[in-house]
Design a protein that fits this description.
This protein has about 210 residues and is mainly alpha-helical. It is about 55% helix and about 5% strand. This is Maleylpyruvate isomerase family mycothiol-dependent enzyme. It holds the Pfam family MDMPI_N.
Length: about 210
């Protein structure tokens, strides 16, 4: 897939998430997500930071943070968090079509938008359905490479097969499920591993516990 095609998918997934965020009540912005201890507003600010941080800005930030990823993320998040949730959303909305990334790992940055969108939607019981082509690109990338999450390591020695898409990866005990559940599980979200099936499913859930 060409770089321009990745950006088209990234922009579309950001816009899809903006549509969901537009419907949230004020109190929902401070509710917890599936992403560690971050609230909805913090996750959105993190995505704005990711959308606006290029290579050299990323390097300066991680060096200033003493190469501590948590401190690095917190510094960038605070920079792109508005004084209230409405302003935080404005910042993210304005970042929807930005084409900035610190590396050429475009499937990873596409995955970041998809995964964090589900981090927000799933606890609220809201539907946020990613583009199928985008989801396939992320699934293939996550199965082949550790990046922001140790996705490849997590499924090492296991075979994955989507029941609703043309996706197969790995070798070993088989795990089957919906493509979105497989992607979110590879991203380290146990809530999505519950519905996975196959002889390897329990082993995968054990690795995540």
């Amino acid at each position: 897939m060409r770089e321009s095609e990745y950006w088209t998918l990234i922009h579309a997934e950001r816009a899809r998430l903006v549509g969901l965020l537009d419907g949230l009540a004020a109190d929902q912005w401070q509710a917890q997500t599936l992403c560690s201890d971050w609230s909805v507003e913090q996750v959105v600010a993190h995505l704005s930071a990711a959308a606006n941080t290029g290579k050299w800005a990323w390097i300066r930030s991680i060096v200033a943070a003493g190469f501590n990823p948590d401190k690095h993320n917190a510094r960038l998040l605070s920079r792109y968090r508005g004084p209230n949730s409405e302003e935080t959303l404005v910042i993210f909305r304005d970042s929807t079509t930005v084409t900035v990334a610190p590396t050429k790992d475009y499937p990873a940055f596409l995955g970041e938008v998809i995964v964090h969108g589900q981090d927000i939607a799933e606890p609220r019981g809201l539907s946020l359905v990613p583009d199928r082509a985008a989801l396939l690109e992320v699934a293939r990338y996550f199965a082949q490479k550790d990046f922001a999450v140790n996705s490849r390591t997590l499924v090492n020695g296991l075979s994955l097969e989507a029941e609703d898409a043309d996706f197969k990866s790995g070798s070993g005990p088989l795990i089957t499920g919906n493509l979105l559940d497989l992607v979110m599980t590879m991203a380290g979200r146990p809530a999505f591993a519950v519905s996975l099936r196959g002889e390897g499913a329990e082993e995968l859930r054990h690795r995540m516990s």
